[in-house]
Amino acid sequence: MNLNKTMQRLTMTALLAAAAAALAGTPAMAAQLDSDARTAIPKDVQQIIVVDYRAMQNSPAAMDLKARILPPELKQLEQALKVSGFNENHDVEELAFAAFRVGDNNAKIVGIAQGQFSLPDIMATIKKNKVKATLWHTNKLYPMGASGMLVTFLNPTTMVFGSTDAIKPALDARDGYAPNLLTNPDMVQQMGTVDTQPLWSIMDQKGTQFMMRSLLGQASQLTDYETIKKRLLGSTYTMNFQNGVKFNLTVSTPDTFTAATMSSLLNAAAMYKKVSGTTVEKQAIDSTTIDSSAGLLEVSFVASDSEFSSLLQSPLFHSVVQ
Predict the structure, then answer these.
(1) CB within 8 A of 227, min separation 6: which ones?
(2) Residue ranges of E strands in 206-259
(3) Residues whose CB is less than 8 angstroms from the CB of residue 299 and which lie 6 or more positions away in sequence, other chains included
(4) Which DSSP string corresponds to 259-274?
(5) Could you tell me if 149 and 24 lie in one domain?
(6) Which domain covers residue 87, as residue numbers?
(7) Of the residues 169, 195, 221, the one at which a domain ends
(8) Are residues 83 and 112 in the same domain?
(9) Each residue's pLDDT tens digit, 68-80
(10) Where does the secretion signal sit in this chain (predicted)?
(11) What is the value of pTM for the model shown?
(12) Could you tell me if 72 and 126 lie in one domain?
């Protein structure tokens, strides 16, 4: 799997689903991972995305957008969830995806769903259908239909699901056989700055480097980006959809000079895109603020619901999600 490409599509999926929910007027809620969910994420995680799943499910526009740009790996996860016998429209409240590395570059994605699950009813259905569980440590893994995916319940409000080679490393982390997210202080610190938002994501250094190259486009050729990228430490983004659409991206660097340099490069990229962009795209760029402060690169985008709706139809949007 090409993890970098998948992460780009993952990011766009979550952002657009949240934005479409904003157009539907869904109120903002916090999307936080409980302690069991956090320990089920391996230490070497590249990106975590957490979204209020109710906002997605309540918006036909969000589901339509998600269907068009969802990476194949996540389509498999979501389809498995649908055929597993769980009523995700009512049971699943928050949905998270974590992309992590196993070995050198062997990338895996695991899903985590949180909500109010009626375990007695679910177990009764499993028993009725004569579904046999397999054990991994002390965890019972149940097949999710014919999808090839497995699911296990960490507690009555948290389940982990994914392919065999993704869910087992997640459970190794949760059960203490391998380091988990809580032993990664950089990612934990980043999470603490954003997890009160209805949609948030954190990225490690490699994920941030790839994202910034994509954002810079041709502007990355204006300087020695290969040197600068090593000074990008990590990033977070949030989206809030009360009273319009508000997106905030923060990239951590070790010093003021690096942050200021990245700010200049991004502003150059924005100016280049503005020259060749449509009226809608130019308006979007005008609504974007790029600045730096105390070693942080900060990008903010603010738009009304109608403005963002127009942007989704623009060539710029289609070129980003390809």
Answers:
(1) none
(2) 234-240, 245-252
(3) 247, 248, 249, 250, 251, 266, 288, 289, 290
(4) HHHHHHHHHHHHHHHH
(5) yes
(6) 1-195
(7) 195
(8) yes
(9) 555 565 666 666 6
(10) 1-30
(11) 0.81
(12) yes
